[in-house]
Design goal:
Elements: H1 2-45, H2 47-67, H3 69-79, H4 84-115, H5 119-128, H6 130-139, H7 141-160, H8 171-180, H9 186-201, H10 206-240, H11 249-261, H12 263-269, H13 277-300, H14 303-306, H15 310-328, H16 336-362
Helix pairs in contact: 1-2, 1-13, 2-13, 2-16, 3-13, 3-15, 4-5, 4-6, 4-11, 4-12, 4-13, 5-6, 7-9, 7-10, 7-15, 9-10, 10-11, 15-16
Length: 363
């Protein structure tokens, strides 16, 4: 009896410990970011400002985590086909790029291009002239959204219109998409009219949206081409010098660009909550860390194979993200809460359906 009771207690304790193993570093990082937000608020305006900074940072972190669920699933999809060394590289150095590159360098780069200023002046503007900084970020909103939406559109089309795809979550819709995908250059024939239509119907900045949209589409093909080329070279080198631990540069490059593309809307949309550069970096950094933890969890626990439709849910989430980013070009701001909520709901539904399907097959 005592042994049975010990086993039951151990079973109850194991899941929280397991989750702490994967998410402990993210929780610690979040605590540090929230403390820094409070300190910054106290420095700039006292206790009331400190509380406001804490709430803003926490809100940004939660919303970025929710809207990035599909990001974690897509990362896991590609990582599961990489060797151990490449996985470790992405989870460590890739995380540095995600947190510091997209959350710190990218917003400064946007202001540099929008205001035609140098990085030092852009950083000074971000820290000490938040209103002017926010103005330049908003000025670049259409170009950034069009580029990011077009790139993610290509990612979604590449998945849904893949004629080799065997598993379909929405049978009729996905079967038709896979059938259309057999047509030569189907991705270009689908994406080009959509980008042209989005640019023509936009009330302002039609030319900028068109150029940015085609830039996003071409970037997808450029990165995909470089990835395929490097993978072919890597395969040739493996035949000459076998090395199971070789760094898969092509796949890592594609995954880094794909991971970065998920951040476009988050960086720009964060200004709906605050125009403080420090808070945006801290809040979005929290979300990036949780994406890392979720990615590691999905890969280590082999969740992608256990949950049949979670990958589909992630790509439907990407399609929703593309729609939300496109609507913002017409002045329709759905808000971070709605965007994050719908994306997270799609993922949750795909998980529930996957569990139901698994129980039916095993039962």
């Amino acid at each position: 009896m005592r042994q049975t009771r010990c086993v039951q207690v151990s079973a109850r304790i194991r899941p929280p410990i397991m989750l702490l193993k994967y998410f402990g570093s993210s929780l610690l990082f979040s605590a540090v970011c929230l403390i820094l937000a409070v300190v910054a608020g106290a420095f700039y305006g006292g206790p009331v400002t400190a509380l406001a900074y804490f709430i803003s940072c926490l809100t940004l972190g939660i919303l970025e985590t929710a809207v990035s669920l599909d990001n974690a699933v897509v990362n896991a999809k590609y990582l599961q086909h990489m060797n151990e060394r490449s996985r470790r590289w992405f989870i460590t150095w890739g995380m540095v790029i995600a947190v510091f590159g997209m959350r710190l360098v990218f917003p400064v780069l946007i202001v540099c291009l929008a205001a035609w200023t140098d990085p030092v002046s852009a950083v000074r503007m971000a820290l000490f002239q938040p209103d002017e900084y926010a103005y330049h970020m908003e000025e670049s909103h259409h170009e950034v959204m069009a580029f990011g939406a077009a790139f993610l559109l290509m990612v979604a089309i590449d998945f849904f219109f893949d004629p080799r795809k065997k598993i379909h979550w929405i049978p009729g819709l996905e079967h038709i998409a896979a059938l259309i995908g057999r047509f030569p250059q189907a991705e270009v024939l689908i994406a080009t009219p959509l980008i042209l239509l989005a640019a023509l119907l936009a009330p302002t900045e039609n030319r900028e949206i068109l150029l940015s949209g085609f830039g996003g589409m071409l970037s997808f093909y450029l990165v995909h081409g470089v990835k395929d080329l490097l993978e072919e070279l890597d395969e040739g080198m493996k035949q000459a010098v076998p090395d199971a631990g070789r760094l898969m540069v092509g796949s890592l490059l594609f995954l880094e660009v794909l991971d970065a593309s998920f951040s476009f809307d988050g960086v720009v949309s964060a200004f709906a909550i605050t125009n403080n550069f420090i808070l945006i970096a801290l809040g979005l950094g929290i979300g990036a860390m949780f994406v890392r933890s979720m990615t590691i969890y999905l890969v280590d626990r082999n969740t992608m194979s256990k949950l049949r439709f979670i990958e589909h849910g992630a790509f439907f989430g990407i399609a929703w993200l593309v729609a939300a980013m496109t609507l913002s070009l017409y002045g329709v701001a759905l808000g971070e809460v709605i965007v994050a909520g719908v994306a997270a709901t799609i993922i949750v539904i795909s998980v529930i359906h996957s569990l139901f399907h698994r129980s039916q097959v095993e039962g």
